[in-house]
């Protein structure tokens, strides 16, 4: 609890440290005088900061590149720290993203990787999603396997298993990532629901899928910014805009769709296209989308 408060109050300290360096003691003094500390003191008169934990939190910020020290060992915000202070996301989310994206090669940062990385954030952990909590083997392994089929790097899959509150968190993260990938593949919602609820009796998942896709869309820009700060050679602007359109509308980027889960279809269904053809495909790439005509397999508008 105190660690989370410390890293979040660093946003306010950032207002002081953005233009000049500030010592660790002054940052801690600032935090102790913050409104958050005042509220905690109201709940317990004996409450006080653990300064050693605050120092550990500052060191964690430095280790993850959110803060850096000058020649006098005073702290100042690094670009990742400025992003954490201005981006409207939890500082813990930025730390998780740094751990997730730092080990990757720039070539590994593709659409499935970005969408999967979004799911490890604190904000996405707060998103409810249907899951069979009694399943110990089938569902927990199924969604991770599907992400591997989408060539999501192993380091990203490992990141899904960090900072979890229980054994179900990593499964929910992987399942939300697959749900978003299905959504942007242009699959019918009834088919998406059938795939996502195959391990439990609850068959209504449309609202949860749209909610997760929308929240993923909200956080995608932050994830792309973190990736570009860590890997300066990356230019994700066009990819980011294209993905934002796809998450908002639920259409594939190139009209071909995703090939994963094909092996899980009945033999009679494998010859059918996974994604319906899209008219005016070039209009979807990265500009405005004046008109999108979704057609069925025979080319007739739906």
Question: How does this structure look, described?
Answer:
With 302 residues, this protein is mostly helical. It folds into 2 domains: 2-86, Orthogonal Bundle (Arc Repressor Mutant, subunit A); 93-258, Sec63 N-terminal domain-like fold (Orthogonal Bundle). The protein is built from 14 helices and 4 strands. It has helices at 2-17, 24-32, 35-43, 51-63, 79-86, 91-101, 111-118, 122-125, 138-149, 154-159, 169-183, 189-196, 206-230, 237-249, and strands spanning 67-69, 75-77, 278-279, 293-294. The strands form 2 sheets. The protein has a two-stranded antiparallel ribbon with strand order 1-2. The protein has a two-stranded antiparallel ribbon with strand order 3-4. Helix 7 packs across helix 13 (206-230) and helix 11 (169-183) packs across helix 13 (206-230).
Question: What's the gist of this structure?
Answer:
This protein is mainly alpha-helical. The protein has helices at residues 2-17, 24-32, 35-43, 51-63, 79-86, 91-101, 111-118, 122-125, 138-149, 154-159, 169-183, 189-196, 206-230, 237-249; strands at residues 67-69, 75-77, 278-279, 293-294.
Output the keywords.
2 domains; 4 strands; Arc Repressor Mutant, subunit A; 52% helix; two-stranded antiparallel ribbon; 14 helices; 302 residues; disordered C terminus; globular; mainly alpha; Sec63 N-terminal domain-like fold; disordered N terminus
Give a quick account of the main beta sheet: strands, pairing sense, barrel closure.
Answer: 2 strands, antiparallel
From the 3D coordinates, which CATH architecture of the largest domain would you assign?
Answer: Orthogonal Bundle
Q: So how many helices?
A: 14
Q: What amount of the residues lies in strands? A: under 5%
N→C terminal distance? 51 Å
Taken from the alpha-carbon principal axes, the silhouette is: globular
Oligomerization category of the chains in this entry:
single chain
- The ordered H/E elements are HHHHEEHHHHHHHHHHEE
Structural class: mainly alpha
Q: Strands of the largest sheet, in order across it?
A: 1-2
């Amino acid at each position: 609890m105190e660690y989370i408060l410390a890293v979040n109050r660093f946003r306010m300290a950032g207002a002081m440290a953005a233009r000049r360096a500030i010592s660790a003691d002054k940052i801690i003094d600032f935090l102790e005088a913050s409104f958050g500390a005042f509220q905690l003191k109201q709940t317990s008169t004996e409450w006080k900061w653990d300064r050693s934990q605050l120092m550990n939190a500052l060191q964690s910020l430095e280790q993850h590149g959110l803060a850096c020290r000058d020649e006098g060992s005073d702290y100042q915000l690094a670009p990742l720290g400025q992003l954490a202070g201005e981006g409207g996301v939890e500082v813990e989310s930025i730390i998780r993203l740094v751990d997730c994206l730092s080990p990757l090669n720039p070539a590994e940062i593709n659409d499935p990787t970005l969408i999967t990385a979004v799911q490890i954030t604190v904000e996405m952990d707060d998103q409810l999603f249907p899951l069979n909590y009694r399943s110990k083997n089938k569902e927990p392994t199924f969604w991770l396997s599907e992400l591997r089929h989408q060539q999501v790097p192993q380091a990203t899959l490992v990141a899904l298993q960090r900072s979890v509150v229980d054994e179900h968190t990593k499964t929910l993260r992987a399942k939300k990532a697959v749900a978003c990938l299905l959504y942007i593949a242009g699959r019918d919602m009834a088919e998406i629901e059938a795939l996502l609820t195959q391990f439990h009796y609850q068959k209504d998942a449309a609202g949860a899928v749209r909610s997760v896709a929308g929240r993923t869309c909200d956080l995608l820009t932050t994830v792309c910014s973190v990736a570009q700060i860590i890997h300066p050679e990356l230019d994700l602007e066009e990819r980011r805009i294209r993905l934002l359109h796809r998450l908002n509308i639920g259409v594939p980027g190139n009209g071909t769709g995703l090939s994963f889960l094909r092996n899980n279809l009945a033999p009679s269904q494998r010859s059918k296209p996974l994604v319906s053809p899209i008219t005016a495909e070039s209009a979807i790439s990265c500009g405005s989308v004046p008109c999108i005509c979704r057609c069925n397999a025979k080319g007739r508008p739906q």
